[in-house]
Amino acid sequence: GLSQYSSDPRTEWDLSAYSTRDQVLEAMRNLRYKGGNTFTGLALTHVLEQNLKPDAGARLEAEKLVILLTDGKSQDDANLAAQTLKNLGIEIFAIGVKNADEAELKQVASEPLELTVYNVLDFPLLSSLVGKLTRVLCTRIKEKRHKESADIPVNTGPQLSPTDLKISAVTSKSMHLTWSPPLRPPKKYRIVYYPSKGGIPKEVILDGAVSSLRLSNLTSHTEYLVSVFPIYDTVVGDGLRGVTSTLPLSSPRSLRVSELSHNSIRLSWKAAQGATQYLVLCSAAPDGAED
Q: Where is this chain primarily localised (predicted)?
């Protein structure tokens, strides 16, 4: 499977798209480069939520490997997103080209770094990595499969997926989430939320025994997308998604003018709930308007 990214990740093809080596190579030859920014954290989150799902061809019994190829320093928090993948047993290999930040590559990659971090000065030099990287990947898969003895279920569905997401108690700065847990309790939940019109995703990790959460410190009068993912030892179940808008901030009411003099007036109003300060603007009426 392959995804390209800049400020917005884009899936080029899923794990289930092609079944032969020649088909993958042909797809690669037809690939068009996507220029733009370097939001690596958002890209890794996209891979987890979109590309490593059963309906995208990810088999639950298969080892999960992500190879990150980047030529620049991330403009968002790549380390946080990478840590989420690694906590789920997904192994990350980081390959830098040209202006990649080697310290960031080492943060993102899985241990041992001598096998998972690579850096070259220009794109043609990537060909020198192919042989070694292929051997390392195959060896790592064999090692992990040998160690793996857990009995992993064959499909997701209601056994691994929460249901019935409800969003309530919405204010200008907060909202409350509840959901029904899956038949098989997860180890943890991962809740991702962000403004629908653009914004850096934030996430909360909860214990699998909990099935509710209050989101706070939100922006008022903003539509938010919310996702709830159940996390098991070796797989992420299907997520729940919801959308809702926070309330606008309350306004002061009943503005009154009193105690007029030749150079002063007194204003009074009913307080706005939650306001800590007020900004009062005053200007002379234009010529011809009521004073």
A: secreted
Q: How many CB atoms lie within 10 A of CB 40?
A: 28
CA angle, corner 129, sides to 123 and 134, nearest 5? 130
Which string of DSSP letters, residue by residue, matches 23-58? Answer: HHHHHHHT-----S---HHHHHHHIIIIITSGGGT-
Provide the token pair at 278: 């007020």
- Name the pairing type of β-strands 175-180 and 163-168: antiparallel
- What is residue 282's three-state secondary structure? coil
Nearest to 213 by CA among 204, 221, 222: 204
Q: Are 72 and 45 in contact (CB under 8 A)?
A: no
Q: Give the list of residues 6+ apart from residue 159 with CB closer than 8 angstroms, or none.
A: 153, 182, 183, 184
Element (H, E) at 87: helix 78-87
Residue bearing tokens 């991962």: 190
Within 88-129, where are the H helices?
102-108, 113-116
Eight-class DSSP state of 162: -
When computed from its CA atoms, the radius of gyration of the chain, rounded to whole angstroms, is: 26
For the CA atoms of 246, 248, 249, 250, the dihedral, rounded to the nearest 10 degrees, stands at: -120
CA distance 288 to 291: 9
Listed residue (140, 114, 119, 143) closest to 129, CA to CA: 119
Closest C-alpha among 212, 214, 222 to residue 243: 222
The 10s digit of each residue's pLDDT in 181-198 is: 988 889 999 898 888 776
Indicate whether 249 pLDDT > 50: yes
Give the amino acid at 36.
Answer: G
- Note the pTM of the prediction, 2 decimals: 0.55
Q: How far apart are CA 75 and CA 289, in angstroms?
A: 51
